[in-house]
């Protein structure tokens, strides 16, 4: 097969301890999946049906090593926010997946940042428009190297945190999720046929806030991964 223009590179993320990489097909995100974050964003902490939004595959920005990785401040915003999240990597696809079977579709886990142009997101909300311009910009998903389930198991509890310039901003526990990873994967598969290479960012605890150029963000999920970026 030949293409009329050069084909884009395959988006991918590193696999911890390996030269192999995980190909990224789509990046799905679940909104307001921790009760305290739902409250701080003006939403309900109840178990309402989960809602999802997307980032493009090439928004995945690999973050490896212990030293902070330079990450570019996005355009057209003066109110950039951080959201630390557990990331589930799908290794086996499916549609209408049962909750009891959902974790069998997860290849592994990492930790990521759902970076958000909050001012643009707010403008879109006020106008009843899509959040995409606030969520789906270039490099909008810094993500650690992924680790297979054989290394991490399926984490259902454990600390999730984010520090900005050494000061704790976000802290919570995976057990605080309104919808577990299994429930989120199953719910997502009702809307989309999941395929190998899909990522699911599983929501963020309370404490989201603004960051600026020069800030260093470091965070992680216990037993899974850590990451650190410097905004430049």
Automatic annotation (TrEMBL):
InterPro entries: Fumarylacetoacetase-like_C (IPR011234), Fumarylacetoacetase_C_sf (IPR036663). SUPFAM superfamilies: FAH. Keywords: Hydrolase, Metal-binding. It holds the Pfam family FAA_hydrolase. The keyword Cytoplasm does not apply. GO terms for molecular function: acetylpyruvate hydrolase activity; metal ion binding. Residues 27-231 form the Fumarylacetoacetase-like C-terminal domain. The keyword Cell wall biogenesis/degradation does not apply. It comes from the Bacteria. This is Fumarylacetoacetate hydrolase family protein. It comes from Denitromonas halophila.
